[in-house]
User: Which sequence fits this backbone?
């Protein structure tokens, strides 16, 4: 996979306002370093993650999606991260049926104190995705309706 | 579209500008996002300064901006600042979006080109998102004037008194039979050597007598419902088996009780108490507690000596667990610390070598009300030590146990050295790594000790043993330590060793955190909202922390935090109501199919189903805004205010740079 060495993947990261977003803040305050390939979105809870968001990100050009939330049992909203976990497992299976490698979506638990953990997980994921290469989703829509448009239409109803 | 968006990029001195080409990012935003509604992009040294804020305000008023994107630090730091600036200029504050290019870009990346490109993506995400923002009004909720204080140590006592003196009701809940906390166990307090009980017990009595304080000892919080201003707290009142209405605190029951039990809590195992007991004579409240697990009557079905001798008939064996629910507006957690368990360092011999003591044991030993009436003697109860070694940093500043500094051990060790010297005349050896005496009067106390002739050995103790190598070591406890100032290994034979144990989070800190919706740091202490600027508030509105629950600290700091937390709560109560983020879910009834998928998802019971109309509704007072139901609704009928599908999907598009013009679009 030598041609992948120069490949800079784009990863969209969904963070929880109470834990992983704070872990990202902590990583910043402590000047920990991680590759710039990940771009974060703040949600109030990993439970807010609509699987559509993941599909939107992948169809829009992201090579991977990282979903982060509070550790099991530590959810700010009591138990909503378990719902994120269930959706994640289902979504990964669904995406696999589209031919998307399961490694492209990852679920990471990171508490507000775990800047180091988040940093390490980001580093690891960037390397994993670099190894997998670009997702190239748009190519697959050749000759078929563009997924992006369908998804957008759905939301706008 | 038709929005007029202003983009403001902050240099943050060199914090951002050192890694991100701010001018390039600003130019790019102004040119390539123009077709998305960006009418101007500016950069400024410090956007959060009053001049930076005025810049935004002026643009809103003069150019009629309808949306503002600020690219600066984390929204957790300055979102409020910029929203307020917008509000001052007449723009609804929720039409402003703060995106982080400091914590998430400049501080974590080193490559300037990549960091600059990422900043552009982050800003593009913010611009796309802000287009879908709506003017919102914060939710105003009334604040119940009562406050719950958890933990009756010095921090909790101080907080409760401040609130009660200001005229507001307080529920003070303490797990042990009496308030007082660790401070009640101490003999003297550094650096003034005030008698701990002399300064603490008057406050305890004040708490006990205060008309505004409902004191609940031998009780624990088991459930917290509701939200800031309107919590419903369930408190378990464990049975004392003593009717407090009738008990006069005469103490006859304790005298007559035939069952002796080792007191592992207050006397840290040094002496016995009875099965019915008050932990110490000045306990508040002064009613005893009957310990069901050791009481002969409960174990064998007969005895009842206490009941027979009680002059007022206050003993009541029929008491049971009682759950009491109280409404409060705010809560202060002052749950304190646990002492580091010295057994965990086997080479220090604690528990194996009888004359190795923990700091808390020594406190009891030299306390006039303690098991030896304040005589510093060895475990045999009679021999005065002729030489004493004090080990600093036991369990602290040690990668094997806790890497943090416990903050109090240096001063505590100096205090012990002084007390030993004063009362026994023994030679004292302080084995330290560094001496840390950073508060008022502390350095002076250290100087005093140096003059008193205490020996200071700079080195961490490697081993404490009774294996004598020479005749003079026979029968002694030998401290093996490298004196790093003279570069030599030393063996110091002494009669007694005091381990200055560090402070640790309570063993149930995690459960407590979970109960109150907080989180713990990697070390296990409760996390504050901001380590410097908001050490008392937490991420959960209406829950404050004070004292050692937040991290190791001494008595002056705990008192300050207790009082400060109370001041924060008083501010809330005085305002009468609080403005909350309007992040809530709402159901569009016309789109709800009544499938009820969302019904079971809400842990706050905010979702109600109307059987008559077959639609679901979200109660905004109970909704906490997590958005799980929004994500689950197959019909897309639930709208997440502040985090709508449109906002998030657009932000994804923005972050992926899908809507960027290929070349500058002419205005």
Assistant:
């Amino acid at each position: 996979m030598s041609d992948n060495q120069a490949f800079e993947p784009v990863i969209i990261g969904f963070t929880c306002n109470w834990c992983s977003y704070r872990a990202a803040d902590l990583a910043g305050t402590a000047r920990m370093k991680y590759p710039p390939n990940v771009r974060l979105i703040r949600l109030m809870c990993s439970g807010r993650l609509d699987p559509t968001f993941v599909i939107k990100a992948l169809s829009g050009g992201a090579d991977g999606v990282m979903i982060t939330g509070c550790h099991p049992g530590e959810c700010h909203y009591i138990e909503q991260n378990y719902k994120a976990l269930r959706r994640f497992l289902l979504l990964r299976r669904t995406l696999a049926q589209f031919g998307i490698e399961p490694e492209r979506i990852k679920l990471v638990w990171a508490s507000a104190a775990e800047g180091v953990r988040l940093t390490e997980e980001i580093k690891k994921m960037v390397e994993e995705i670099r190894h997998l290469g670009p997702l190239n989703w748009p190519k697959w829509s050749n000759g078929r309706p563009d997924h992006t448009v369908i998804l957008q239409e759905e939301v706008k109803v | 579209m038709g929005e007029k968006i202003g983009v403001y990029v902050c240099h943050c001195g060199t914090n951002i500008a050192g890694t991100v080409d701010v001018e390039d990012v600003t130019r790019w935003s102004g040119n390539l996002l123009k077709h998305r509604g960006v009418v101007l992009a500016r950069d400024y040294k410090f956007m959060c300064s009053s001049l930076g804020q005025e810049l935004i305000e002026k643009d809103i008023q003069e150019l009629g901006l309808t949306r503002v994107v600020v690219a600066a630090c984390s929204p957790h730091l300055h979102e409020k600042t910029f929203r307020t600036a917008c509000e001052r200029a007449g723009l609804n504050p929720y039409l402003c979006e703060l995106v982080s290019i400091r914590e998430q870009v400049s501080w974590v990346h080193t490559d300037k080109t990549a960091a600059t490109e990422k900043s552009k993506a982050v800003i593009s995400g913010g611009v796309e998102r802000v287009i879908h923002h709506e003017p919102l009004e914060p939710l105003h909720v009334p604040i119940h004037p009562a406050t719950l204080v958890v933990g009756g140590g010095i921090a909790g006592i101080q907080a409760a008194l401040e609130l009660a003196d200001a005229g507001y009701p307080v529920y003070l809940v303490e797990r042990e039979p009496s308030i007082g906390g660790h401070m009640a166990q101490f003999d003297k307090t550094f650096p003034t050597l005030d008698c701990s009980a002399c300064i603490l017990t008057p406050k305890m009595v004040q708490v006990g007598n205060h008309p505004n304080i409902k004191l609940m000892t031998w009780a624990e919080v088991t459930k917290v419902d509701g939200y800031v201003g309107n919590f419903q707290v369930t408190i378990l009142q464990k049975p004392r088996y003593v009717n407090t209405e009738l008990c006069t605190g005469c103490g006859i029951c304790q005298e007559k009780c035939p069952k002796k039990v080792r007191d592992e809590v207050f006397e840290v195992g040094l002496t016995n108490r009875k099965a019915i007991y008050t932990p110490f004579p000045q306990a508040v409240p002064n009613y005893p507690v009957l310990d069901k697990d050791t009481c002969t009557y409960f174990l064998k079905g007969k005895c009842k000596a206490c009941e027979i001798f009680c002059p007022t008939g206050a003993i009541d064996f029929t008491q049971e667990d009682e759950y009491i629910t109280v409404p409060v507006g705010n809560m202060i957690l002052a749950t304190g610390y646990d002492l580091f368990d010295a057994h965990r360092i086997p080479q220090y011999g604690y528990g194996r070598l009888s004359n190795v003591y923990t700091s808390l044991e020594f406190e009891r030993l030299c306390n006039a009300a303690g098991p030896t009436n304040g005589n510093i003697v060895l475990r045999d109860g009679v021999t005065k030590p002729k030489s004493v070694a004090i080990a600093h940093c036991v369990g602290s500043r040690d990668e094997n146990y806790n890497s943090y500094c416990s903050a109090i051990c240096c001063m505590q060790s100096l205090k012990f050295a002084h007390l030993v010297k004063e009362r026994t005349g023994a030679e004292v050896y302080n084995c330290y790594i560094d001496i840390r005496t950073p508060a008022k009067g502390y350095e002076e106390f250290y100087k005093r000790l140096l003059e008193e002739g205490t020996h200071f050995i700079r080195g961490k103790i490697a081993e404490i043993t009774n294996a004598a190598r020479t005749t003079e070591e026979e029968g002694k406890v030998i401290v093996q330590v490298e004196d790093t100032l003279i570069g030599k290994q030393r063996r110091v034979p002494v009669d007694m060793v005091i381990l200055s144990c560090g402070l640790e989070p309570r063993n149930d800190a995690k459960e407590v955190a979970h109960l109150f919706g907080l989180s713990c740091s990697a070390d296990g202490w409760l996390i504050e909202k901001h380590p410097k600027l908001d050490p008392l508030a937490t991420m959960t509105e209406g829950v404050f922390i004070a004292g050692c629950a937040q991290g190791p600290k001494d008595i002056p700091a705990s008192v300050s935090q207790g009082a400060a937390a109370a001041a924060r709560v008083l501010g809330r109560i005085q305002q009468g109501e609080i403005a909350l983020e309007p992040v809530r879910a709402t159901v569009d009834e016309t789109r709800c199919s009544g499938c009820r998928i969302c019904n079971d998802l809400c842990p706050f019971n905010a979702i109600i189903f109307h059987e008559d109309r077959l639609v679901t509704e979200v109660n905004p007072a109970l909704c906490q805004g997590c958005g799980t139901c929004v994500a689950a609704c197959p019909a897309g009928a639930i709208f997440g205010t502040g985090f709508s599908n449109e906002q998030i999907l657009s932000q994804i598009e923005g972050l992926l740079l899908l809507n960027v013009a290929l070349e500058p679009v002419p205005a």
Remarks:
- Residues 252 and 611 of chain B are 63 Å apart (CA to CA).
- The mean pLDDT of chain B is 95.
- The radius of gyration of chain B is 31 Å.
- Residues 555-575 of chain B form the longest helix (21 residues).
